[in-house]
Target: Antitoxin
Amino acid sequence: MTQMPIESIRDVRAHLAEVVERADRDDQPTVITRRGKEVAAVVSIEVLRKYQQWEEREINRIIDERMANRSVGVPIEDVMQETLARSE
Model:
């Protein structure tokens, strides 16, 4: 896997069109930092949509698991937290 570019938000502002083009044309995300901390990324819309589809499938899978093994009083917040933890 190739290394993703990492740029400060200030640098990205200076050439946003290039960053977007790189994500769209070359399918190369750019990680954006603020004060040295990674805070966001510019990715192609295709990558975003694939992620959203995966996330929805994963949530539905966990809900199906929980419904098949009904335990009393499992809050949806716990299901969501478990889903997010699995994606890390």
